[in-house]
Design brief:
This protein is mainly α. The protein has one domain. The chain is 73% helix and 0% strand. It is built from 3 helices and no strands. The radius of gyration is 15 Å and the shape is extended. The chain starts with 5 loop residues before the first helix and ends in a 6-residue tail after the last helix. The model has no long low-confidence stretch (mean pLDDT 82). This is Cobalt transporter subunit CbtB.
Length: 60
């Protein structure tokens, strides 16, 4: 079994995703980054933390 690299994943994404899909993914990532960087209020932080867990993302 070969190990996947980041370059392999980028190449796969380029082949599978359309431009609007890639733009939507980048916009979603930018929105999350904005929220985490600029809204570090405890309530917003806890809400994002719970959202990540609900989405199945392990954050600690």
């Amino acid at each position: 079994m070969a190990t996947e690299t980041v370059s392999d994943r980028i190449a796969l994404a380029r082949a599978d995703l359309s431009i609007p899909e890639a733009a939507a993914g980048l916009a979603f990532g930018a929105a999350i980054a904005f929220t985490l960087v600029f809204l570090q209020e405890p309530l917003a932080h806890d809400a994002m933390h719970n959202f990540r867990h609900a989405a199945g993302i392990t954050c600690h």
